[in-house]
Amino acid sequence: MTPKRIVITGGPGTGKTSLVRYLEEDGFLCYHEIIRDLTSEAINGGDTASFKSNPLVFVDNPYRFNQRILDGRLNQFQKASMDAGPVVFFDRGLPDVLAYMDYFDQDYGPDFVTACRDNRYDKVVILPPWEGIYQGDEERFESFEQASAIHLELLKTYIAFDYNPVTLPYGTLEERSVFVTDLIKSIL
Prior knowledge:
Layout: E1 4-10, H1 16-25, E2 29-31, H2 35-43, H3 62-80, E3 87-91, H4 94-103, H5 110-118, E4 123-127, H6 144-160, E5 166-167, H7 173-185
Helix pairs in contact: 1-7, 4-5, 4-6
């Protein structure tokens, strides 16, 4: 039986990664965000003071960088088919790539759209902007305002692919985890 695939998404600094790690500690299979590793790799040796919000400004080929992200997420999606267990969580999904490319006004080919259209998740949970927990770091260059705008782009993109994202309420990690686990009971 193919596990149910659940995407945890949202703008930068909304608590996605913390929630995914918490769910993993509770015994769920989780695929982690791959962009942080790729961003770290891209900025290695670069002048991070010049990177304002778009991590693609320091890569030689932004399209290829985004293709690597898409390919990595597609690999996670396909690998999940072979994993045991009723549910698999993903820290970001395939449509996130298009949302970010749209936000940064970058073109993409039909293969990006096809990958998103043909590889469907069972549920999308979106974490809203939350200024109270937002923090920048070495791989997160966006301001809170930019993170909020990215949230809207993510919402628009998932809706364009006929998803009905469920907005996760603010709360502790435990409260958020309970909300998500209660939500997935409805699709199992």
